[in-house]
Design brief:
By secondary structure, the chain is mostly helical. Helices cover about 70% and strands about 0% of the residues. Helix 1 runs antiparallel to helix 2, helix 1 packs parallel to helix 3 and helix 2 runs antiparallel to helix 3.
Length: about 160
């Protein structure tokens, strides 16, 4: 019987070096993308850049979660796309700082509105992404992750048989 992950005495799962490389490469790409969005979107009272990346990230994570539930989903997709790209794309720390700055600037209603709207919209978009992914024809979610390795640089580590 496999160990219960909820048991604090259960051994931690083994971490593979290849997975760490995938997370790092994906995280770098996601973080650079987030930086690009922050540079492209205007500033102002509402933190549009963080709002955009976090909500798009929630939708994409829902889509990815549904796609990875399908049989034949590649093992590399979760560390590269989920923990890596989407982990780097989204940001809780910037969101928390922005909420605090809005409150400190004398805009507590805007701070609470931003915090609450971000949370509610993120949950709804993640659920919508999951529902959409599970409703798609079976061939599409399997074909997309399989096509991605052809687009990735050859430098990424590959699993050996």
């Amino acid at each position: 019987m496999p160990p219960d992950p909820a048991d604090p005495a259960a051994p931690a799962p083994a971490v593979r070096a290849g997975d760490l490389a995938l997370v790092a490469a994906g995280g770098a790409a996601g973080s650079l993308g987030r930086w690009g969005v922050a540079a492209a979107l205007p500033g102002g009272a509402w933190p549009w850049a963080t709002w955009t990346v976090n909500l798009s990230g929630a939708l994409l994570l829902g889509l990815l979660t549904g796609a990875l539930r399908r049989p034949g989903a590649p093992r590399w997709a979760r560390p590269l796309l989920g923990a890596g790209v989407l982990g780097g794309w989204t940001t809780f720390s910037t969101y928390a700082v922005e909420v605090e700055r809005l409150a400190a600037a004398g805009r507590p209603v805007l701070a609470l509105g931003y915090a609450g709207a971000s949370l509610a919209a993120g949950v709804l978009l993640a659920a919508a992404g999951l529902a959409l992914s599970l409703a798609l024809p079976r061939a599409l979610p399997r074909a997309l992750p399989r096509a991605l390795p052809r687009a990735l640089p050859r430098a990424l580590p590959r699993r050996r048989p």
